[in-house]
Write a structure and sequence with these properties.
Keywords: Membrane, Transmembrane, Transmembrane helix. The chain is mainly α. It has one domain. The protein has 5 helices and no strands. The radius of gyration is 25 Å and the shape is elongated.
Length: about 170
């Protein structure tokens, strides 16, 4: 047994260790989920580029952007959204997501729906070149897809886990 004179009484406060400012500690996120999400995002970006600008890869066969190209770049945009969501949600691993994360997820989803409906407006019958004519990607559709992408970007900004504020 130890000598009672050498042990501090139980009511004596134990000094807290202050962490070094450069010490980040153990990882607070899943590295594999982040890597998987970034890989899906990059694959989606490649598919998006194939659809939006096939001339880069030598696939350009038409002077206008038609239905197949629109569908391909929307699939690429969907993969980018899924990969970004996976990566950013992995950063919240040991913390409860905030309400801004819920808004961000909804904005990413809403932005994608806006992009799909703007891109496929002719196919859905409310564009400037409705079927049975040849649908192609016009200026208003481009503006709608860009607006949808801006909404997606705003949603991703809300998904970022900022460090908690320190009260002084």
């Amino acid at each position: 047994m130890s000598d009672p004179a050498q042990t501090p009484p139980s009511d004596t406060p134990v000094p807290a260790q202050t962490p070094h400012p450069d010490d980040t500690g153990p990882l607070t996120y899943s590295r594999r989920r982040v890597q998987f999400g970034l890989t899906v995002t990059l694959v989606g970006f490649f598919i998006f580029l194939v659809g939006a600008s096939p001339g880069i890869f030598g696939f350009d066969r038409s002077p206008v952007i038609g239905f197949v190209q629109i569908a391909v770049f929307l699939v690429g945009l969907a993969l980018m959204c899924l990969g970004g969501y996976t990566s950013l949600m992995a950063l919240w691993r040991n913390r409860a997501p905030s309400i801004s994360v819920d808004f961000g997820v909804r904005l990413v989803s809403t932005g994608y729906v806006i992009a799909v409906f703007a891109g496929m407006a002719d196919v859905f019958g409310f564009g400037s070149h409705p079927l049975p004519g040849v649908p192609f990607f016009g200026g208003w559709q481009a503006r709608g897809v860009i607006f949808g992408e801006m909404i997606i970007a705003l949603g991703f900004l809300l998904l970022i886990p900022y460090p908690p504020k320190k009260h002084s």
